[in-house]
Design goal:
The structure is a homodimer of 239-residue chains. With 239 residues, the first copy, chain A, is α+β, with helices and mostly antiparallel strands. In chain A, 30% of the residues lie in helices and 34% in strands. Chain A is globular, with a radius of gyration of 21 Å. At the A-B interface, strand 7, strand 8 and strand 10 of A face strand 7, strand 8 and strand 10 of B. The structure holds a DNA duplex (30 and 30 nucleotides).
DNA sequence: TATAAGAAGTCTTATACAAGACTTATCTTG
DNA sequence: CAAGATAAGTCTTGTATAAGACTTCTTATA
């Protein structure tokens, strides 16, 4: 009866939180098969239908993938998938370009006040990953990604990092990026940025300020991109 | 037995399609209360649980809103809601600006080949709605929206149109915009666009090419916006 | 004006069965 | 005897139903 006083959480939410915790902790690695609906229900003391509702929700979040007759599996962040979801540049005909990593540079440093405010855990120190990627034609993307050192220990030793960072985050640190908030603004390349991008000074560019969140809704990465896109467009869907 | 030969659609999908049709036809106008789960189930010969599954799906699509103890209601496209979902410019602190309609101009004309290709029904004639909106500070948005004449009869007589077109579409034509695909690219204002926007020639601008879809997934509007945003950013979420 | 009872709605859980995918045993055939 | 086709069995998710709990709002009453 005492339980009834405080707001009680529905059973399916308990199941969701349990499974999310297991995935985020690495107990259920990418590609692993989850317990079946019946198993999971028995294990947590709920019915199959309730376990099912939880798994459906996790599928909607993109954390797991399900197939009738096969089972439920932790989503594997493939390069293809990561690029499709989180790299929104497309050719004018809608084609997906294959970005090529031209340069990369990683360093550790103290976090700025802004980074402490935004990133999970208000980290004292961060890693900075600077990259230049090129697209078909003259288009270029200059990115600076910043992550807390505490969440990604030993990152420096793992250089060079692969093209798709989010795949790397998942494989090496069980950190699954499921969402990103972006703020876009148009700009004009000054001398320094033009030099970095290898384009003419005064070119039109797009600046993208992104914060990426993991399965536990923690801000795990801040990223500033400057995009020179004459042959590409930035593609988004509003709902 | 003959029914089993052709692929059978699940019952909950039948319920979904039925309700969507009623909303899109105007039989269930904005704000109307839907039949309860039990009623709807009885009416269509399915159980309450099946009717519920359909209504949950419609809520996820944004077509209806539900509240325990109250009921299910057709979503009302309020100016506030429409702006929040489909007008993504935000102040640098995240605040939502109140755009002011400065100029508006409507005309009917033949559709271009591109418009015929993109818009639903390959319309021969369209309405063109040209607007200039201003934001706090010096920021300006120049928009050209194009809609098929067939879907919006008598649009010219209804001028002047309100600030939020999507609210108007729903109230006057039972046309609910639920999704929009956008393609963004950076640019530099030439003399003509600078004049229209009332900004300096050579300013950085963002060009947004949008196609909006209704509840039946028909492309009902094509819109090209040119945004001069020095004090605002374009805010999107990737998932 | 405050309170309690009731009605009408959604929310949660449980159960049964259908359908798809994979494994394994069995049969056929060379 | 070996190899391949076939069929049965089992494990999984998908669909449908039903019963009771919870929430919200209305209405009657003190």
């Amino acid at each position: 009866m005492a339980d009834d006083v405080i707001s009680k959480t529905p059973l399916y939410r308990v199941v969701i939180d349990t499974v999310v915790a297991r995935i985020a902790s690495g107990e259920l690695p990418p590609g692993a098969m989850l317990p079946s609906e019946v198993q999971l229900g028995a294990e947590l003391g709920v019915s199959q239908g309730t376990a099912r509702k939880a798994l459906m929700e996790l599928e909607a979040r993109g954390l797991v993938q399900r197939a009738q007759g096969r089972g439920t599996f932790v989503t594997i962040q493939t390069p293809d998938r990561a690029l499709f979801n989180f790299f929104r540049l497309r050719g004018k005909d809608g084609a997906r370009p294959a970005p090529v990593l031209e340069r990369q540079e990683i360093l550790g440093r103290a976090a700025t006040k802004e980074e402490k405010r935004v990133l999970y855990g208000a980290p004292a120190r961060v890693f900075e990953i600077k990259r230049l990627r090129s697209l078909p034609g003259e288009d270029r993307v200059h990115e600076v990604a910043v992550v807390p050192q505490g969440m990604f220990p030993g990152l420096l030793e793992r250089a060079p990092l692969p093209n798709t960072l989010y795949v790397f985050y998942q494989q090496a640190y069980s950190c699954i990026v499921v969402r990103a908030d972006e703020r876009l603004s148009p700009g004009i390349a000054d001398a320094e940025m033009a030099e970095r991008l290898g384009v003419a000074e005064g070119s039109a560019v797009m600046r993208v300020d992104r914060v990426a969140y993991d399965a536990l809704d923690r801000a795990v990465e801040r990223r500033v991109s400057v995009i020179h896109a004459r042959d590409h467009v930035y593609d988004v869907t509003l709902k």
